[in-house]
Amino acid sequence: MKVALLSFHNAYNYGACLQAYALQEAVRELGADCEYIDYVNGTRAGIYKISARIGKAIKQKNIKDLVKTVGGAPFIRSRRTKFDRFYRERLKKTGQTYRSCDEARSLEGAYDKFVVGSDQVWNAEHNGADAAFLLGFVNDSAKKISYSSSFGMAEIPDAQKAWYAEHLNTIGCLSTREQAGVRIIRELTGRDAHLVLDPVFLPDASHWKSLLTDKKPEKPYTFYYMNAAFDYQNIERVTGIKDKERHILSASVNPSDFLKRNQKVTFAMSPDGFLQKIHDAELVVTTSFHCLAFSIIFRKKFIAILSGDKGRDERLLNLLKITGLESRIFSREMTKADVEAEIDYDEAERRLNVYCDYSKAFLKAALFEGADQADSLKEPALPASEKFEICHQDDCSGCGACSLRCPKHAIEMKPDVEGFLRPVINERLCIRCGVCQRTCQHNAAVPQNQNQQYYAFKQTDAIRAASSSGGAFRTLARQIIADGGVVIASEMNEDWTMAHSVATNDAEVERQGKTYYVQGKAYPRFREAEEYLKNGRKVLFAGTPCQIGGLMKYLGRDDENLITCDIICHGIPSPKVFGTYIDYLKGRGELTQLQHRDKEIGWKGYCVSAVIDGKKVKNKPWLKAYNVMFSHGLINRPSCYQCPYASYHRPSDLTIGDYWGVENHRRELADRLGVSLVLVNTEKGGDFFRNACGDLPLVTLNQKETEQNSLLHPQKKPGRRLGCMLMTERSFEQAAKKYGEWSLKGSLKEAIRRLMLRVKGI
Predict the structure, then answer these.
(1) Which tens digits make up the pLDDT trace of 524-538?
(2) Strand bridging mode 2-6 / 33-39
(3) Which of 131, 346, 558, 682 is the least crowded, having the fewest Cβ atoms under 10 Å away?
(4) What 3 state SS string does 222-256 have?
(5) Would you say 41 and 132 are in contact if contact means Cβ atoms under 8 Å apart?
(6) What is the pTM of this model?
(7) What is the DSSP pairing of strand 607-612 with strand 591-598?
């Protein structure tokens, strides 16, 4: 049998390279003759070209990427040379290069089967939305097999769903490497794809060791392989371990990393050198799935770090669940004893071999016996977690609905080591009834808004002067009060803690209409909202999307008297860090006032002001450092980096926020007092909002005019986050100087920002 393989077979990425080699070896071991189609479309050809990367950085005016690419060019060339050698020596491919789906059509008669996989071959961003990577150049569906293919995303954009469904339905044998992939295929096609192991697990450990040398390292070392910038000393700070020597493989390093004692840094390592480095390490620390995979194959002690990217982390979590090694996930509670504990690899391999045997059986059946036989194979059940979880801890937004609905009062909301509220289960009281899991908003699909409407809104100048933006919240709140209802929204207390309060008049609403970059505790007010609604009173409940999501899951139904309003949220900063910030300000004198959105220098000026010892200070580096750390995503809750509401699908009747980008779309509206963006998500919300606006003008927008990052995707988790969190616990001043732009560089950036605002006339 002659088999054609298709993957990212020439990527300068360790996982992509080694999975391609592994799939080839697995097919050969089954007795088939195989080779890779040398398929390189325009997107794939440009990914690794230095000239293309420089051109892209110039076009996007990204000076940082430009400097990084130019400065790293020698390392990029060295890495490319080492990968090319590996591919040349280890991979068999066609003599001709194919650059389009049409060119590849001539191959159909030359092979008995076509296998596409593994890697993110179905990620349109990586493959250029090319149907060839869904085997679109092959007409006979019986010849088409996907093995461990990945979408590389948790959701398919609406505009691409029909395209994916059409091509996936033509593949006779479907398998993927992630549960998200199984779900996506089922939603798009109605078919059940097989969940199989990544190809690197198909060859045994002895095969991989045959690629290594017997040369021993000069001294013991810890190997770090990270996909993003990372302060490597943070592992030592949390766990107390001391690296004898630290070897780092990363593209995100600073010049200072090369100068530290007992630390070796490289970017240009060969694929077999990568395997060698893992094999010889005393400890492996990684965010990479394939580095984790080879740590398990070589039976190494390791620490797995979750990046906060839900799609990326799911593969690590699946593998750790299969092998029973979830205890190796890094957390702030991890100790030196946890790191040094022996790993029961006999048990881990026993569990893994069940999936390995199944994966090999699927590949064999798909190649030699056809789709019916492959589909008849019984897939092993993913082991249940030994620990009872309401939801995965990195999904938890701390909404508190689970604690309120627990019939045994077995759940208490307590702050974790970073100050974020989390449900803590009293095992003595818990009866495993599952009510908490069914109540949790993160175990249910996000509501899909239909016929959403978009408006730009400006209140009177007097109201906007006292508001953070265009006065939308005060407009809604005043209307509900006029209707005899109550407003439940966040308010700063005298002790500088934030919590939701109940307002029944305009004066109380004014106390709620201030913006502080810290989340108020909302769930204690859920029951009050429920009582007001039962008594027929109108309620406006405002908060972050996850707080509204929690409220709706707690209530279990909508109510005609309930108007929910969420904000366009940038994330939830740590209450603990906010507390250290307040303590620092108090250390400078008596703190009587704080404003995170003072409009003294204009709406877009982001002026932070405080009254200390009776004197007003504004935008001092030490004063605005907290805002900088928040805006850079350095102190946010883990769930924020994979927030399901960072999209146009919202849990509320209305969504309000700053209309960023107004000067690009509706220049005539831009001024120093601010403009609100309002998303009307339900018919009920639209009727209430328009009634509240009265005679005030509304400007109707299209969705394109409203786009901003927080409505398109969650913020990525910065590699510097852990270092910032740890440093704020020791000294807010130190953290502010390192992470909060309390420096000459930060002052220059602030001066440039203000100059740009003056130029734009805002």
Answers:
(1) 999 999 999 999 999
(2) parallel
(3) 346
(4) EEEECCCCCCCHHHHHHHCCCCCCEEEECCCCCHH
(5) yes
(6) 0.80
(7) antiparallel
